[in-house]
Design a protein that fits this description.
CATH topology of the largest domain in chain B: Aldehyde Oxidoreductase, domain 4
Low-confidence stretches of chain B: 1-6
Mean pLDDT of chain A: 95
InterPro entries (chain B): Ald_Oxase/Xan_DH_a/b, Ald_Oxase/Xan_DH_a/b_sf, Ald_Oxase/xanthine_DH-like, AldOxase/xan_DH_MoCoBD1, AldOxase/xan_DH_MoCoBD2, AldOxase/xan_DH_Mopterin-bd_sf, Xanthine_dehydrogenase_dsu
Distance between the termini of chain B: 62 Å
Structural class of chain B: alpha+beta
Helix content of chain A: 25-40%
Keywords (chain A): FAD, Flavoprotein, Oxidoreductase
Mean pLDDT of chain B: 96
Number of strands of chain B: 29
Low-confidence stretches of chain A: 294-302
Pfam family, one (chain B): MoCoBD_2
Number of domains of chain B: 3
GO molecular function (chain B): iron ion binding; oxidoreductase activity
Number of helices of chain B: 17
Oligomer: heterodimer
Strand content of chain A: 15-25%
Distance between the termini of chain A: 42 Å
Largest sheet of chain A: 5 strands, antiparallel
CATH class of one domain in chain A: Alpha Beta
CATH superfamily of the largest domain in chain B: Aldehyde oxidase/xanthine dehydrogenase, molybdopterin binding domain
Strand order of the largest sheet of chain A: 4-5-10-6-7
Protein name (chain B): Xanthine dehydrogenase, molybdenum binding subunit apoprotein
Radius of gyration of chain B: 27 Å
């Protein structure tokens, strides 16, 4: 096995162009497991740990929207510590990933590249309308995250491309994330759900994980809720949400799922749980919105 | 063994001195090493010029082997040997009770994962790739997968030529046809639990110049391994020398052979040291698991709540090979009514062969499964009688002088009612302060943020159990200890040498404490465990402090007797008037006579003693025996559980235990055993299950076979009482297993109390709760 260790980004892109079959490795929390279990025997590993810029994040603006650009090799632990107030949904998801050791090593870019239907980082990014920046020696392109996932562990990446960064619009309202697992920590998701309220554009974002071949949004649920909130003048004068609204939102989220039966749970349970999670997370997010803070750094979780 | 062949990582040296005698809690000598990651486990072994072994396993639960072609694998560069069944030098069969399992499969494979061929290569990856080059032509057969069906349907294929029943055992007491005012019945199932020890199977075999082999390994029982390995290698047992290396947990999963014969075969064939280490996935196929069970129970009681009868049929799925199935049937049936005094009993137990993964020893052997059933039944009966479930248990609790269903009179304390009363009195968790924001880590779902209190209902449940200690039904599972007392640099030093496996339970500390108390010396060393001393038997059945503790005590007393005899002669005082105290020999008449070291001079005193527990006797065809079991141990648990009733997620808030340990030789280790056992029982209650479909394991990884984390295992109140057993050394009563047994039913009872669900299967999953 060849082990390539580019010192900088352009060198890494060159290496990937010359070795399109190379498996990129950063934290190694997915790749090493696959190697250890002998599920994969790549001819070449492309080590990204020396590329400083991949470990940086910055505030930018995209299309007039304040946005955080997160380098692909930023680990979960730093998402929690450094971006907990700016991107609360993503930070909440990061808290549910593995153990402290895994959160120190594992990276957001790795989570996206693995493209597991159960990737914990994906739903909050979908709920925030994040985009992914891919680059190769041929140039750079940015596409909506929803277009990035093409199937179970499959993405739109070309063989010579690497993930440079993720662009996440800063939250303008409350965000929530919940994950079902049959253990109270360190568990692969049975299913996950993320919701983000976007009061500035009067929109709602959602993301479902472990509920379909790819992470996806519950578009119908988003549209229903945004419509109901607008219709009742709730954005400007927030009042308790009628049970009929939260219930319908839950139903539509559950309907957006196309889950399977597997060793971690049944399709029926996943659908049921998504309904409950959608209802609960919406009510937490809405309570927070009603309590008056447009963008709140407060979170209920530890 | 010559020095050039010595492994670079020697077996862990555990002779660090500790302080403290019997009844104290000195820190264990290996504790700091383990916490710091410095402890050398058997998987860390290494030797110069070493090869790596790998094992080809059957992909089918049942198949006939038409042919095996090793040619391409053998020609692969870096491969030094490829071995199949025809290369087994001696008996190609082994087993703990029934000798029925091939070292390497011959004409058939009986489970998915059965070893078929071996490779030795100069790199582990080379060995693994060579496995892919071995061509096995299988004729796939229909597997037998249902143990209950296997017991009654003669038309099923026979997994072994002698039929599919490993053991059938009835237990009959009193009138099996008696009727009662109130009758409750239920059917209960227990999933396949794994020992989930963290250190995978591993060993290093070094061929010796005398034609024998030295094997460094992690095991629970060196001598039983040696006996089976020597027979398979066709070597004199004296030529198969085994040395214990760092053991990363066992819990029963290291009682059967795994890599022992394989790694020795490869070493003897290649003439080079060979190491085998399983990875986690292979480990799931490389050791036995806890028997899944299906159990039909019927309890009858008077309107006042006195048990009139218990009737049960128990089916244990032993999988492809017998392993400890006969003992599981013995324990399951004899202990099948629980720690209760029942006049009329009719229990039938079947242990069956199937093409499922082989099942064998695991903590609480054969007593875990019926405890879930009989305790669920006691709760169901309490409900039918409108009685408090603890009161019903206390009312029917067995006690000293009572007779078990096999006719054995309990001639030692059996404080079951007292344990129940005590555990009930332990403090309950405080309710969270009103209006306080809960920390999600304290709620069901934990860090996953699934509830902020919505749907959460609290329940409380109880469980109590009985477990036999030591081997039973006529087994003489004795232990041996050699103790040497000598003068080292003017101080007396005692060396304790046994083959008793330190598997994490703390025996290494206990042996030193006993020697220190018996010989009144400060310095005690433990000799590495190996086969150059007599057998100790297995570190299982909660038996080592009892039997090896007894052997160390006996050997120490023999050494003391000789020391006092020498002193008596030298000082002209009667030996009966002499005693040891603080490193000195003291006369009742004239006070301190001499330092022990001084009397020893340059002479060492060495004595070897065996300890045999009380004789037991087999069960007859009605399950009667004057004394089927050596001793019984009891524990009682109370569980407080929060359940998210909408999502079916669980948080065990508190788990408390009262247990009688006879005598706590090391009180802190005792508490540690109770905490660890309770955690393992919690795992079975709410998450641990090897999922098997059509004979195949679906979750052979720690990603999908879940064991409790610190957020799943709550704080415990542990209440230890000491009602000494007059038949046992120091009055000890086995500790390790009972807490694994009674915690599971207590937790499930609490979930039932919170949800109102029947819950007849463990582990309880979200789908059972939301139903």
């Amino acid at each position: 096995m060849d082990f390539l260790r580019p010192a900088g980004w352009s060198e890494a892109l060159e290496a990937k162009a010359n070795h399109p079959d190379a498996t990129p490795i950063a934290g190694g929390t997915d790749v090493m497991v696959e190697l250890n279990f002998d599920h994969r025997r790549p001819e070449t590993l492309l080590d990204l740990t020396r590329i400083e810029q991949l470990r940086e994040w910055s505030r930018t603006e995209r299309n007039g929207v304040p946005t955080v650009r997160i380098g692909a090799a930023v680990p979960y632990a730093r998402l929690i510590e450094e971006l907990g107030t700016t991107l609360p949904g993503l930070a909440m998801a990061a808290r549910t990933v593995g153990s402290p050791q895994i959160r120190n090593r594992g990276t957001l870019g790795g989570n996206l590249a693995s493209a597991s239907p159960a990737g914990d980082g994906h739903p909050p990014l979908l709920a925030s309308n994040a985009e992914i920046e891919l680059e190769s020696v041929r140039g750079s392109r940015t596409l909506p995250l929803a277009d990035f996932f093409t199937g179970v562990k499959r993405t739109d990446m070309a063989p010579d491309e690497l993930i440079a960064a993720v662009h996440v619009p800063e939250g303008t309202g409350p965000q929530q994330f919940s994950k079902i697992g049959t253990r109270n920590a360190m568990v692969i998701a049975v299913c996950t759900f993320a919701v983000a309220l976007h009061p500035r554009r009067r929109g709602v974002g959602t993301g479902l994980g472990s509920a379909a071949p790819t992470p996806r949004s519950a578009t119908e649920a988003e549209e229903f809720l945004a419509g109901a909130l607008a219709e009742d003048g709730q954005w400007d004068d927030p009042r308790p949400l009628p049970a009929s609204v939260t219930e319908r939102f839950g139903e539509l989220v559950a309907r957006a799922a196309a889950p399977i039966d597997d060793v971690r749970g049944t399709a029926g349970y996943r659908t049921h749980a998504l309904h409950v999670l959608a209802r609960r997370t919406l009510s937490w997010a809405w309570d927070e919105y009603r309590s008056g803070t447009e963008l709140s750094g407060r979170q209920r979780c530890a | 063994m010559s020095d050039t062949h010595a492994p670079a990582h020697r077996p862990q040296d555990l002779d660090d001195a500790i302080a403290g005698g019997v009844g104290e809690s000195p820190l264990r000598p290996d504790g700091t090493l383990k916490v710091r990651g410095d402890f050398a486990y058997s998987s860390d072994l290494w030797a110069e010029n070493m090869l790596w072994g790998a094992t080809l396993r059957s992909p089918h639960p049942s198949a006939r082997i038409r042919s095996v072609d090793i040619g391409p694998a053998l020609r692969s560069p870096g491969v030094h040997a490829v071995l199949t069944a025809e290369d087994v030098p001696g008996r190609n069969l082994y087993g703990l009770k029934d000798i029925d399992q091939p070292v390497l499969a011959e004409d058939v494979v009986r489970y998915r994962g059965e070893a078929v061929a071996l490779v030795a290569a100069d790199h582990p990856e080379t060995a693994r790739r060579a496995l892919d080059l071995i061509e096995v032509d299988y004729e796939v057969l229909e597997p037998v997968v249902d143990a209950e069906l296997a017991a009654h349907d003669d038309s099923l294929p026979k997994v072994h030529p002698g039929g599919n029943t490993v053991r059938y055992q009835p237990i009959v007491k009193g009138d099996p046809e008696v009727t009662a005012d109130v009758v409750v019945s239920g059917t209960y199932t227990v999933g396949m639990q794994d020992q989930a020890f963290l250190g995978p199977e591993s060993g290093l075999a070094i061929p010796a110049e005398d034609g024998g082999v030295d094997l460094y390994l992690a095991t629970q029982d060196l001598h039983t391994d040696r006996k089976q390995t020597a027979a398979a290698l066709d070597l004199d047992p004296e030529l198969v020398r085994m040395t214990m290396s760092g053991v990363g947990g066992a819990f029963g999963g290291r009682e059967d052979l795994s890599m022992q014969v394989h790694v020795c075969m490869l070493a003897l064939r290649t003439g080079r040291p060979v190491k085998i280490v399983y990875d986690r996935e292979e480990s799931f196929f490389g050791h036995v698991h806890r028997h899944p069970a299906k159990m039909y129970y019927e309890h009858g009681a008077t309107r006042d709540g006195d048990l009139v009868f218990v009737r049960a049929q128990l089916y244990f799925d032993g999988g492809a090979y017998a392993s400890k199935t006969p003992v599981v049937v013995g324990n399951g049936t004899t202990l099948g009514v629980g720690p209760y005094d029942v006049a009329n009993v009719s229990i039938q137990g079947w242990g069956m062969y199937t093409n499922n993964p082989p099942c064998g020893a695991m903590r609480g052997l054969g007593a875990v499964q019926p405890a879930f059933a009989y305790e669920s039944q006691m709760d169901r009966l309490a409900e039918a009688l409108d009685m408090d479930p603890v009161e019903l248990r206390i009312r029917n609790a067995i006690s000293r002088g009572d007779t078990t269903p096999t006719g054995q009179v309990l001639d030692y304390p059996a404080p079951v009612a007292e344990l129940l009363r005590r555990v009930r009195e332990l403090p309950l968790p405080e309710a969270p302060a009103a209006g306080a924001e809960p920390d999600i880590r304290d709620l069901p779902g934990g860090a996953s943020n699934t509830t902020h209190g919505e749907g959460v209902v609290r329940g409380v449940g109880y469980g109590v159990c009985i477990k036999n200690i030591c081997y039973a039904e006529g087994a003489d599972d004795f232990s041996t200890a050699r103790v040497r007392l000598q003068n080292v640099a003017g101080e007396p030093l005692a060396m304790v040498h046994t083959a008793a496996a330190e598997v994490g339970q703390g025996l290494v500390t206990v042996q030193q404490q006993i020697a220190r108390s018996e010989l009144e010396v400060e310095r005690v060393n433990i000799h590495p465990n190996d086969t150059s001393v007599g057998p100790a038997g297995s570190s299982s059945a909660s038996r080592q402090t009892y039997v090896t503790g007894g052997a160390v005590q006996a050997a120490c007393r023999a050494v003391r007797e000789r020391l006092l005899a020498i002193t008596a002669e030298r000082f002209g005082e009667p030996a009966a008037e002499l005693s040891l105290s603080g490193g000195k020999i003291v006369s009742r008449e004239s006070g301190v006579l001499a330092d022990i070291a001084e009397v020893l001079g340059s002479e060492a005193i060495e004595e070897t003693r065996e300890y045999h527990h009380r004789e037991t006797f087999p069960l007859d065809e009605r399950g009667r025996s004057e004394r089927a079991q050596v001793q019984h141990a009891f524990s009682a648990h109370r569980a407080v559980v929060d359940v998210d009733t909408e999502l079916g997620l669980i948080k065990v808030v508190q788990l408390d235990c009262s247990q009688d340990v006879g005598k706590a030789v090391n009180p802190e280790s005792v508490v540690g055993q109770i905490q660890g056992g309770s955690a393992q029982g919690l795992g079975l209650a709410v998450m641990e299950e090897i999922q098997v479909g059509e004979g195949k394991i679906r979750n052979p990884s720690f990603t999908d076979y879940l064991i409790p984390t610190i957020l799943d295992m709550p704080p415990m109140n542990v209440d230890v009482i000491e009602r000494g057993d007059p038949n046992a050394p120091y009055g000890v009563r086995g500790v390790g297993e009972p807490p694994t047994i009674s915690s599971t039913p207590a937790i499930v009872a609490a979930i039932r109390a919170a949800t109102g669900r029947d819950l007849t299967h463990v582990p309880v999953g979200p789908e059972h709760i939301i139903g």
